[in-house]
Amino acid sequence: MRESLGEYARAVAKWWWIVTVGVIAAIVGVVQSVSGLAGGPVWVWVILAFAGLSIAQFMAFHESRKELAASKGELVGLQVQINELKAQPNLEIVTGVGSVFRQERRVRSSEGFPMKETVCRVGIRHDGNATVDNVSVDLESMKPHSLPVPLRLHQMNDNPPTRQFKQDFSLDGGETKYVDVVLEQHDDEEQPTRDRVLLLRRARGATSRLLIFHIVPGVSQDIPVGRHEIVIFAHGHDAKPVRQNFIIDVDDNGKLQFASA
Question: Can you spell out the DSSP letters for 63-100?
Fold first, then answer.
């Protein structure tokens, strides 16, 4: 109650000049009437004083009403922003088991040597119903070894003969698309060979290769065989982006390890 009275007094006091003019005019009028000087009846001047106070109160109310309307407008704008944020789907980076997340295959190296290859992937999806356009997935950071990040990662099965790789994709509600992250190649020792170069490589044990599966021209994909900590960043139009940490490693048996940190 005390705080309300204080606020009321301060609001009315802003219009002190209206009250003052009314009160002074009333005092002058009353004095003139009582002294027999020219002037109207006393009640006219009393009403004038109250009118000044009433006008001041109305102006205080009007100012408060304008401030309240402005505050309501700000609240409405804030609620609109909150609703827009709620309406934005959340992108998710998912991992799992199965060949779609981890694919092992036999290939041949650029020199024609038989190799075993393991590709590890992540899935991208969102929790909304509408289609999210311009979704892209980047290697955002990496340590201890660092490539010149960010690097756009390769979409699964995107292998055009022109090597003009897709930079982004659209993602429908309930859909998951997959992105290649890391590739490990090693000599397929189950395949016999008489090639002297390959035999020498096998003797030296230098048969493993580790690559980040990115599509940026002119940037090497090779990284040292060993443990690496990376951050993957997925973002799209009108969707909340997501970051996730992962560990890349090769165990003592030469097997690629890829897991969420």
Answer: HHHHHHHHHHHHHHHHHHHHHHHHHSPBEEEE--SSTT
DSSP assigned state of 131: P
Over residues 14-39, mean pLDDT: 55
Could you tell me if 196 and 113 are in contact, meaning their C-beta atoms sit under 8 angstroms apart? Answer: no
Token pair 């827009």 is found at 84
DSSP H or E segment with residue 35: helix 16-35
Fold (CATH) for 91-260:
Immunoglobulin-like (2.60.40)
Residues of the chain with CATH 2.60.40.10: 91-260
pTM: predicted TM-score of the whole model, two decimal places: 0.63
pLDDT, position 209:
82
Q: What pLDDT is attached to residue 94?
A: 96
Residues 141, 230 contacting (CB under 8 angstroms): yes
Average pLDDT over residues 9-30: 55
